[in-house]
What we know:
Blueprint: H1 3-15, H2 19-30, H3 35-42, H4 46-65
Amino acid sequence: xxxxxxxxGLHAAISSLPGKQAKRIYAHFVLGMSKTDIARVEGVDEKxxxxxxxxxxxxxxxxLKK
Length: 66
């Protein structure tokens, strides 16, 4: 897979996620925010953020394998 098509695939996979999963994955992996910082900004427990990111990554994996 070419680099540009890889980035397009990743962008499409993130965009297809439910809003909170997409937002949290973007904040963590693209913006470099810690899960603790994301939780603090959103006013939720860090575990909520961690689980959403884990679910989002599993969903992305399924999409990218197609």
